[in-house]
Specification:
This protein is of the alpha/beta class. Helices cover 35% and strands 19% of the residues.
C-alpha cells in the first residue's frame, strides 16, 4: 500500500516513517518464522490436551508420533510418582516472567500463553539461551484456552498485568472476569489456584469482587505487594514467585507505582 497523508489526523506518513514501518513488519515476519522452528513454541497445537507435560519433556517429537510418550518419565525419588506441577501464565507478553519462574523452579513445568507472537519471541529466545527444558510457549487466543488443556491438567494460573479493558462493554475480555473464570475452572486442578498481579487499582478491586461473587476463596489480597511490610509477610513460595518481575512490572516499580496481588481458589 502506498504511503499517503492520514485523512483524519494531522500526522504525515513521511518516507522515513514508512520505511521504518516496513522494517518493523519484516522483523516481525522474521521473528514469526524463527519461532515456527522453535521446538518449545506451539501455535494452535492439535491433540495437546492432557499431554503438556509430555510435550515439554519431549518437544521435538510430533504429538501424533507413536514414539511420543503420554507422560514424561518421573525423576527418581523415594516416594510414589507424582506429576510435576504445571503452571500457566496467561497474557505472558515477552514471557520474561515465565522463563524467570522456570529457571527458579526447575522441578515444575511452565507455559506462557499469549496471542502476540512478536512479544513472545523475546521469551522464546531467552529460554533457548538459558537452555531450559521445563518451559514453553503457547501462541493462541486466550478465549480458546480450554481447547488446549484437559480438565484438571493445570495446577496454577497466573494473570500478570493484563489489559484492564476499562470499558464496561468489554468486561468479558478481562482475563479475571467471570467469563474467563468459567474457562479456568474447566482446566484447573481441583486444588489449583489463580493469581493476579496488576498496577491497575480498578481492575484489582473488580477482580476481588468478581471472584468472591463467583464463589472463590480469596487466600491473599495485597495492595502494594512490594512494600517492606508485605515483603516481610510472604511465605517462601511467595517470596520467590513475587520477586520475579514482568517487563511491565519493572517499569512500574521504577516509577514507584504500587503493584497489587490477589490469589483465589475455587471451593
Amino acid at each position: 500500500m502506498p504511503c499517503t497523508w492520514a485523512s483524519k489526523t494531522l500526522f504525515a506518513y513521511t518516507p522515513a516513517f514508512c520505511k521504518n514501518r516496513l522494517s518493523v513488519g519484516r522483523r516481525k515476519l522474521a521473528h514469526f518464522a524463527e519461532m515456527a522452528a522453535m521446538p518449545r513454541v506451539w501455535e494452535h497445537p492439535e491433540h495437546s490436551a492432557g499431554r503438556w507435560r509430555a510435550m515439554l519433556a519431549c518437544p521435538i517429537t510430533p504429538l501424533d508420533s507413536p514414539d511420543h510418550p503420554s507422560s514424561p518419565l518421573p525423576e527418581p525419588h523415594d516416594g510414589p510418582a507424582v506429576p510435576q506441577k504445571l503452571t500457566l501464565e496467561l497474557g505472558c507478553g515477552t514471557g520474561l516472567w515465565t522463563v524467570g519462574m522456570a529457571e527458579k523452579f526447575k522441578d515444575g513445568w511452565w507455559i506462557g500463553a499469549d496471542i502476540k507472537g512478536a512479544r513472545m519471541w523475546h521469551g522464546a529466545k531467552l529460554l533457548e539461551s538459558k537452555q531450559l527444558n521445563n518451559v514453553g510457549f503457547l501462541r493462541t487466543r486466550l478465549e480458546e484456552i480450554e481447547s488446549y488443556f484437559e480438565s484438571g491438567e493445570v495446577n496454577e494460573i497466573w494473570i500478570t498485568f493484563p489489559d484492564p479493558q476499562p470499558r464496561e462493554s468489554r468486561e468479558k475480555k478481562r482475563l479475571s472476569s467471570p467469563a474467563f473464570l468459567r474457562r479456568y475452572r474447566n482446566i484447573l486442578n481441583p486444588d489449583g489456584c489463580i493469581h493476579l498481579k496488576t498496577d491497575n487499582i480498578s481492575l484489582f478491586e473488580y477482580t476481588v469482587e468478581a471472584w468472591q461473587a463467583e464463589g472463590l476463596l480469596i487466600e491473599r489480597c495485597i495492595r502494594d505487594v512490594h512494600s517492606p511490610k508485605h515483603i516481610a509477610q510472604r511465605n517462601p513460595y511467595e517470596q520467590d514467585a513475587l520477586s520475579v518481575l514482568t517487563t511491565y512490572e519493572s517499569r512500574y516499580m521504577v516509577q514507584n507505582l504500587p503493584i497489587h496481588y490477589v490469589r483465589g481458589r475455587f471451593l
